[in-house]
Amino acid sequence: MSFDGLQQRTDFPAPVFIAPDAAAASQALALDVARTMGNGPLNLGLATGNTMRGVYAELVRMAQGTHPMQSGKLPVDAMGCFLLDEYLGLPVGSEHSFRAWLERALLRPLGLGLDRLRGPALEGDRERAAREYELLIADQGGIDLCLLGIGSNGHVAFNEPGSHPDSCARVVELHPTTRAAAAPAFGSLDAVPINALTLGLANLRACRELRLLALGEGKAEAVRRLLVNGVDAGLPASLLRDHPGLVVILDRGAAALLPE
Predict the structure, then answer these.
(1) Among the options 43, 58, 103, 155, which is catalytic?
(2) Is 144 an active-site residue?
(3) Which pTM was predicted?
């Protein structure tokens, strides 16, 4: 783990690194991923959404050998890719699925096919699919490094407020604030799925390393609650804060409400 050039805070339950802006935070996380990949085969848990867009763009530049801070290309052939969550009820091939999002943002630019992305089956018995996805992850050696965002309501993956600390992969109902945040991408609130399949908090805690990235003032209150308040099931991210491999990366906006 190395986040050279970022402000480090050691007065919180987890290591915190603060970058001057979103671009610097994204680059720092991408460099951390790249350094970890240099140590050998790596199974990555991949979050989606705008928070991760800059990180994946940086990784693509590194893989193409055009990044000024990375010498040599990334060993993407040794990278395993695992979904953290997925919407349910979308048409097959929907551009709004997280599979499709990751294909556009990361896999295709890396020259990788969609078959490289592991995720739960979405047809048939969904609870069975959740169990089978857990078994698949275990069979592949587990997730080494999991990239996480945080929702304004504190959700991680699709573990919404009230999620049990020992929750496993399962079908969930999305919180109204989560659906509202996704509405612009879908064109309307009514088009946003009501349900999703997500890895649970127990699955996330089983990952060897966690990196939580938060950008912008819209995440500042969730970040404050995560790092300053006590553990609270109403803020699911806080149930991960005692993970020994958790590192939190913020830009100044997301860090705005932290005490000095």
Answers:
(1) 155
(2) no
(3) 0.94
Of 32, 86, 160, 251, the catalytic one is 160
**pLDDT digits 0-9 by tens, 163-215:** 999 999 999 999 999 999 999 999 999 999 999 999 999 999 999 999 999 99
CA angle (212, 159, 60) in 5-degree steps: 40
Query: What does the block give as tokens for 124?
Result: 């048939």
92-149 tens-digit pLDDT? 889 999 999 999 999 999 998 888 899 998 888 999 999 999 999 999 999 999 999 9
Residue 171 phi/psi, 5-degree rounding, is -85, 135
Say yes or no: domain 7-251 is CATH 3.40.50.1360.
yes
Around Cβ 179, how many Cβ atoms within 10 Å? 17
- For residue 42, what is the enclosing H or E element? strand 42-46
